[in-house]
Amino acid sequence: MIDVAVLILHPTPAGRAGTIEAWVTAGRAAIAERHRVGFLEAGANEVTVVSGPPDRASFGERLRGFVTARRPRGVVVLGSGAMPLATRSDRRAFVEAAAASGRNALANNRFSADVVAIATAATLDELPDLATDNALPRWLADVARYEVSDLRRRWRPGFDIDGPLDLLLLGPRGWLPAPPDGIVDGVAERLAMVRAVARDTRAELVVTGRLSAVGLAWLERATASRTRALIEERGFRTRRDGQRP
User: Fold this and answer.
1) CA 179 to chain centre
2) Cβ–Cβ contacts within 10 Å for residue 3, how many?
3) Mean pLDDT across the stretch 11-39?
4) What pLDDT score does 185 carry?
5) Euclidean distance between CA atoms 126 and 111, whole angstroms
6) Of 40, 55, 30, which Cα lies nearest the Cα of 4?
7) Alpha-carbon distances, residue 73 vs 16, 153, 228, 229 (angstroms)
8) Which residues contact 190 (CB under 8 A, 6 or more apart)?
9) CB within 8 A of 68, min separation 6: which ones?
10) What is the mean pLDDT of residues 65-72?
C-alpha cells in the first residue's frame, strides 16, 4: 500500500489556445512540475500529474478512480494552479495530514478548497460525483464525518492561479514562462494607478469581487486610502456545488 499519493489535476485548453491562454496553461504546468518535485521532497510516496482537456468526468469521479486504482493510505489532491508560493513546510503539512490515522483532513481553505489532504483514503470509495474540489471539505465533514482543519490563516497556501492576472501578480520567477510581449504593459500601468490610490489618504479605493473577511481586514491595515468593498461571493455558485445547505 502507498502511504501518501498526490494527485495534481492540470487542465489544458479544449481546442487551439490563444496567446494568453497558452501562457497561463504553461504557467500552471510549471507550477505542477514544481509541486511534483516538492511533494516528493516533502515525503509523499507518489505524485501523479493528470493532464488533458475538459471531458465528462467530474472531479469526484476522477478522485474516486485515482484512489481505487492505487489504494493509498492517504491522498493529497490539488489543481495545477494551487499555492504556487508553497514552501516545503506547507507541502509537508499536507503530506503529514494525509499520512495520519483516523478520519482527518486538511484543506488550504475549507470553504474554497484548492488543496485537500485526506487520511484513511479508502473512505473516498463513497465519494459522489462532486463537480469541483470546493465541495470536498464539506462532504468530508458532513457526510464522511471527518475532522476538517484548514490553513486559511496562512497567505501562501491561499494564492491560486486561475487566470492571467493571477499569473502576472505572482511576478517574474526563473521557473515560470515569461509573459508574451506586449500583453502586460497596460495591466502594469493600471496596477500602478491602484497603488497610488491606496497610498493616498484623500482617495477612496473600491474593491469588488470575491474577498474574505481576512482579506478585507488586511486591506484596512495596509491601505492609507478610505477603502470600501463590494463582495459578490461567486454568484452563489457554492450553494449549487453543495457546500452550503
Assistant:
1) 21
2) 14
3) 94
4) 84
5) 21
6) 40
7) 39, 27, 46, 43
8) none
9) 125
10) 95
Q: Is the pLDDT of residue 144 over 90?
A: yes
* 146 vs 240, residue with greater confidence: 146
Matching residue, cell 493571477:
166
Cβ atoms of residues 150 and 137 within 8 Å: yes
Exposure string of 98-121, with b = 16+ CB inside 10 Å and e = fewer, is bbbeebbbbbbbbebbbbbbbbbb
- pLDDT value of position 244: 52
- List, in sequence order, every residue forming a beta bridge with 5; answer none if it has no partner: 46, 75
pLDDT at residue 16 in the model: 86
Question: Tell me, what amino acid is at 26?
Answer: A
pTM: 0.86
Tracing cell 510581449 back to the chain, one arrives at: 181
Helix H or strand E segment including 142 = helix 136-142
Within 13 A of 86's CA, how many CA atoms are on the CB side?
A: 33
* Average pLDDT of span 70-78: 96
| C-alpha cell at position 123 | 473512505
